[in-house]
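During the no-cost extension, the postdoctoral fellow (Dr. R.K.) reprocessed legacy sequence entries with the updated structure-token encoder. One reprocessed record is reproduced below for audit purposes.
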Amino acid sequence: KWSRQRVVLLREQLGRTDQASARPPEHFDEVELGIDHPVLTHAGPLEDCAQAQDIDRRILGCSDRIRQFPGDATALFNRGSAYLGKGYFDRAIADNTKVIAIDPAYATAYYHRGMAYERKEQNDLAVTDLSKAVEINPKLGRAFDARARIYLKTGQRTLALRDAERAVAIDSLDETFRDTRARVYEALGRPQEAIADFRRVLS
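Re-encoded structure tokens follow.
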């Protein structure tokens, strides 16, 4: 079922390690990124950068767009999102840092940079960014959920429950939010509440 696949995908994503090279993000090529089709048939960089079905194509399109317009926050954000999806966490951080410099109120850029820090086990930096994201947009349930997971794995269970509850309050149908809250309940020794959430996730 879709909900099972989503839970499995989340757990796989949380287990990724950063594959980015030590070089700055502006110094890369398609081979280094694992892109074996640098020449693509497409409508143009803007269209490639905007689509999300082909991550490699998105990176190439956004990179072309950024070469033409270095201050394009949307292109930087979209490329940073693609880097995050491929596990190039340092590059995701670099692109989202540029986005934030252009638009300090870009809540999702803080969220994505926080996620990249979390994947690198830089939890303090991740919490700082996720906190800024929810300060700017208190309805960003994904950021509350992500911060809850960090609090849980660092042993701050009360804070984890607070954020997990906030995420579920924002979207009670989100399986990921329910899964996180179930794990917090389990860690707090509240098995019945954990089971109720797990059942909702796996139904």
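The two ends are 8 Å apart (CA to CA). The CA atoms of residues 43 and 188 lie 52 Å apart. The remaining legacy entries will be reprocessed before the final report is submitted.
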